[in-house]
């Protein structure tokens, strides 16, 4: 246990040698360490470079297709003073709101799940493969789990750029196969168009039903106002008196207002019936998805170089640690001697795992 006594002993200061210090911190000292451990450096550089090369070999090609659509309404803007707008029936959003809604819809989980479950026919290295999206990403096993994984994967492979001012939306689809990228883009357009058609048809049907009921009420109110005028005229043959003339004008004004309301509702009702019967495309395709000719440049090509650089840096750190350990072993300090003794004890404890427990009980009995 001499190491315990040596730790507490004050060592005399070593003579200061400025020349040796400059030599240790010089460029030649740095290069000498690298040359001394050149074998280890070469092995680490080669190993990390090979690891980066394996990552590059495992990376897949990336084929990107672009889809351009416009969601700005082709119909004339509704009159903000119209009866339907005042009643809150025609909730036509502006271009910016429609673009924001479409941007969220294009990457929504329900749409991505429907797109992933479509059937695709793609030419691969193994030949022509047909099946859902998971067939082309190697997923097998639990269908529910893979459906969730494919939904998230597809959402990550889609990029949306939108302009609220023009209503244009550009969609970029990235998959490992050119046929697959094109077919995914086509399915997205088809499903979104189906959703928009169903949405507009439901809105038009709801508006038509509401206006139909309101139109019947307005007609009854108009008939009641006209009957009131008729009854007033029958009761008062001479309306030259100021009071009777004023009452007659009031009743006529009420009939005129109810007539205007009825006419406006009738026009809105006819438009709603036409809109409900329409089956026109709800989005404008600016650019249909095309099959990519060549893959996109991949950053994975830099993996071998990055791996070699990482191996070099790791080797430099390990080389200087080993060199420092070698210098300390050549002229051991009390701390290094204590470290050597503790390391030997740890090795003996590993060979005899129960030895530390016995030593602990012995120390407790001595206490």
Mean pLDDT: 76
Total of domains: 2
Which regions have little confidence, pLDDT < 50, spanning 5+ residues?
1-11, 16-22, 74-93
How many H/I helical runs? Answer: 13
Q: What structural class results from the helix and strand content?
A: alpha+beta
Strand content: 5-15%
Task: State Rg.
Answer: 42 Å
Q: Could you state the oligomeric state of the chains shown?
A: single chain
Q: List the helices and strands in order.
A: HHHHEHHHEEHEEHHEHHH
Helix content: 55-70%
**Strand count:** 6
Query: What is the overall shape?
Result: elongated
In which order are the strands of the major sheet placed?
4-5-1-6
| Main sheet attributes: strand count, strand direction, barrel closure | 4 strands, antiparallel
Task: Tell me the span between the first and last alpha carbons.
Answer: 19 Å
Structure notes:
- There is one protein chain.
- With 367 residues, the chain is of the alpha+beta class.
- The chain folds into 2 domains: 20-58 and 298-366, no CATH class; 63-287.
- The chain is 64% helix and 10% strand.
- The chain is built from 13 helices and 6 strands.
- The strands form 2 sheets. A 4-stranded antiparallel sheet has the order 4-5-1-6. A two-stranded antiparallel sheet has the order 2-3.
- Strand 2 (120-124) and strand 3 (127-131) form a beta hairpin.
- It is elongated.
- It starts with a helix and ends with a helix.
- Mean pLDDT is 76; it is low at 1-11, 16-22 and 74-93.
